[in-house]
Amino acid sequence: MKTDKVILGVLGGLAAGALMGILFAPEKGKKTRKRILSKGNDYADDLKDKYDNLLGTVSKKYEDIWLEGQDLLSAGKDKLEKTKKEIQKLEI
Prior knowledge:
Elements: H1 2-23, H2 29-91
């Protein structure tokens, strides 16, 4: 999670720097607003891609853990049944 915070901090700094550069550039207001909107859309798309990637990674890890848990449960049930049969043989 620490890396994610660093990445978000860097992206935020880049966005702020780009915005400041655009605001202080000597261009007409309409052109500046279009550039700000374009950059904002670019950053929003980039952030959405990173979010989707993170969500995919978390989902994959959850699925892997779930499958491992099912395997462990199945192995535990098999051992329990085997132990029950061994105890029944000893009682006879």
